[in-house]
Amino acid sequence: MILTPTLWRTSRVLAGPTRLDLLRRILAGAGPGVSEFAAAAGLSEPRASQELRRLQARGLVQMVREGRHVTYRPVPDAKVPSAKPLLAAAKAALAKRPDEETIRVAQAFGHDRRLRIVRELMNGPRPARELAAAAGIPEMALFRHLRPLKEGGVARRTKNGWELAPNSHPLAKAMKALLED
Q1: Residue 52: domain span
Q2: SS3 per-residue string spanning 156-167
Q3: Pair (87, 60) in one structural domain
Q4: What's the N-to-C CA distance of the chain in angstroms?
């Protein structure tokens, strides 16, 4: 199953503080319509609508239209294989973790090269040169991508190279599980 485009793009969507706030409001059942979400989040209606559509496009929420009225519900799209576990992970993270931590974790997985790096590190620790070659990434680019992985608590440097860092964040766990498939 090819999940990479969905995973890194969904991570980018979850890395946005405004979208994370809107997702929290959807999960809480607050404000059934776009105008209510916009007012509660201090956004214009067009901006709120745009951000809600981004969440919906990643399969994390369902849009329901009743005439001119549109509501959003926390229902994962069955056509997006990663939506259900990522929505559950986001829900758990938003309930117990600071938004800044969730944003850092989401940013860590927000590029296809970073997903390749994580997949390679799942096979065990690697020196940077070997990791770059295995992931098919130039060594200079590898270090650019290792920075957000380190900041998100996903990877860490050791005396012999790089390895996956233990990370109990629900989003990190879900992403790693999806990458294992």
Answers
A1: 4-73
A2: EEECCEEEECCC
A3: no
A4: 7
- The total number of structural domains in the chain stands at 2
Counted residue by residue, the chain has a size of 181
Structure tokens that stand for 5 in this block: 């485009």
Place of tokens 């766990």: 173
Report whether 58 contacts 19 (CB < 8 A): no
CA contacts within 13 A on the Cβ side of 1: 11
Q: Are 68 and 100 found together in one domain?
A: no
Q: pTM to 2 decimals? A: 0.91
CATH code of 146's domain: 1.10.10.10
My answer on whether 104 and 168 are in the same domain is yes
Do 154 and 89 fall into the same domain? yes
pLDDT digits (tens, 9 = 90+) for 122-165: 999 999 999 999 999 999 999 999 999 999 999 999 999 999 99
Helix (H, G, I), strand (E, B) or coil at 101: helix
Span 102-123, pLDDT tens digits: 999 999 999 999 999 999 999 9
